[in-house]
């Protein structure tokens, strides 16, 4: 089932169950996917859908950190629940151990030996973990193994 079809079904169910917050998040995701399809000029591939979901998740994580820094627990709690809903539609996230193995393998694959190779390693890893890992976590592991 395509992601838009799943969102439509879940949106109808959220309306029936009167789940306002879930409905709101589903509508935002659906809108983001439709806007991307318009910009893309046609149907989105599964990779494009994952890219849109990852972008939405990143926006929410950034908002969460900003709200926590500002001491706005009310807004932070709302964003946390939005993140949980977006996670339902995102691919399963890699564990730290799985991510660490991918980083080690990629460093060996590209022959990186120093911090100067950081960009080369990141460029090789990110397509492999697209939508399955946070870029900051990847960045942390790459820096750890290149230092």
UniProtKB/TrEMBL annotation:
Source superkingdom: Bacteria
Record's protein name: GatB/Yqey domain-containing protein
Originating organism: Listeria aquatica FSL S10-1188
InterPro entries xrefs: Asn/Gln_tRNA_amidoTrase-B-like, GatB_Yqey_C_2, YqeY/Aim41, YqeY/Aim41_N
MF GO annotations: carbon-nitrogen ligase activity, with glutamine as amido-N-donor
